[in-house]
């Protein structure tokens, strides 16, 4: 099977129970619970109107400006999948527009992450399917290949395996590895509870700020 031009089957997927649980958590909280070292890139911005992204990764790798494998991925998608496409971050040509979007909605796709551009932005906003992309352009794509489906991809240094959990909100998108999803969920739930407690203390005028001076002293800061 030629490397760079192959279609594989996904062997595992995070459970829908986890998808639903993560959908209720801010991406920033989950990111903090993963030591703040994972990110899909700050250039991947939401192109839909509002709402959070959560689903199972169906990965696509394609050459810049070509969407043949992206078309095939939509054909293969199962309800609840998030199609994550690495097109090298190039925004010269759009990877998809409103026709592909309409078909994806019909298939039950939960959303898209495109490391490339899209077009028909008004259609994406109106349809409001959670979609993240690196840019927008009116120039259409090519359909020649090559590419890969259901192989590991890399977005901004973040490796995404087929079947990983993909989440996103207005702060950006994040992949939670399949093997770590349960552990990250428990840590994120605990952090969210702690932040809610801190917010309540702020509103009550009881927020403890002594940690700031302690951190400055630990850092050796001279306070005159």
What is this structure, in a nutshell?
With 224 residues, this protein is an alpha/beta fold.
Keywords:
224 residues; alpha/beta; Glucose Oxidase, domain 1; two-stranded antiparallel ribbon; 7 helices; 24% strand; RraA/RraA-like; transferase
What are the SSEs and their pairings?
Blueprint (H helix, E strand, L loop, with lengths): L4 E3 L8 H8 L3 H6 L12 E2 L6 E10 L5 H9 L4 E6 L11 H10 L3 E8 L2 H7 L3 E6 L10 E3 L3 E3 L2 E3 L4 E5 L2 E5 L4 H23 L6 H9 L6
Parallel strand pairs: 1-7, 3-4, 4-5, 5-6
Antiparallel strand pairs: 2-6, 3-7, 3-10, 8-9, 10-11
Protein name: Putative 4-hydroxy-4-methyl-2-oxoglutarate aldolase
GO biological process, one term: methylation
GO molecular function: methyltransferase activity
What can you see in these coordinates?
This protein is of the alpha/beta class and 224 residues long. It has one domain: Ribonuclease E inhibitor RraA/RraA-like (Glucose Oxidase, domain 1, 3-Layer(bba) Sandwich), CATH 3.50.30.40. It is 32% helix and 24% strand. Helix 5 links the parallel strand 5 and strand 6. The longest helix is centred in the last third of the chain and has 23 residues, at 181-203. The chain starts with a strand and ends in a 6-residue tail after the last helix.
| Helix-strand pattern | EHHEEHEHEHEEEEEEHH
Number of domains: 1
Averaged pLDDT = 97
Beta-strand residue percentage: 15-25%
Tell me the total number of β-strands. 11
Distance between the termini: 68 Å
- The outline comes out as elongated
């Amino acid at each position: 099977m030629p490397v760079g031009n192959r279609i594989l089957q996904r062997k595992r997927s995070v459970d829908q129970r986890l998808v639903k649980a993560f959908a209720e958590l801010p991406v920033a909280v989950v990111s903090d619970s993963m030591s703040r070292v994972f990110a899909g890139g700050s250039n991947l911005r939401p192109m839909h109107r509002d709402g959070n992204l959560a689903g199972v990764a169906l990965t696509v790798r394609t050459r810049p400006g070509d969407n043949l494998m992206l078309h095939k991925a939509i054909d293969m998608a199962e309800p609840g999948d998030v199609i994550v496409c690495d097109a090298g971050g190039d925004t010269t040509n759009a990877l998809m527009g409103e026709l592909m979007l309409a078909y994806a909605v019909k298939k039950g796709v939960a959303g898209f992450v495109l490391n490339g551009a899209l077009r028909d932005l008004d259609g994406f906003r109106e349809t409001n399917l959670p979609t993240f992309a690196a840019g927008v352009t009116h120039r259409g794509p090519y359909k020649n290949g090559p590419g890969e489906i259901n192989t590991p991809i890399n977005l901004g240094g973040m490796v995404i395996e087929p079947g990983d959990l993909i989440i996103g909100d207005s702060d950006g998108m994040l992949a939670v590895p399949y093997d770590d999803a349960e552990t990250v969920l428990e840590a994120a739930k605990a952090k969210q509870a702690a932040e809610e407690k801190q917010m309540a203390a702020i509103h009550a005028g009881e927020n403890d700020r002594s940690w700031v001076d302690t951190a400055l002293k630990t850092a050796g800061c001279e306070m005159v």
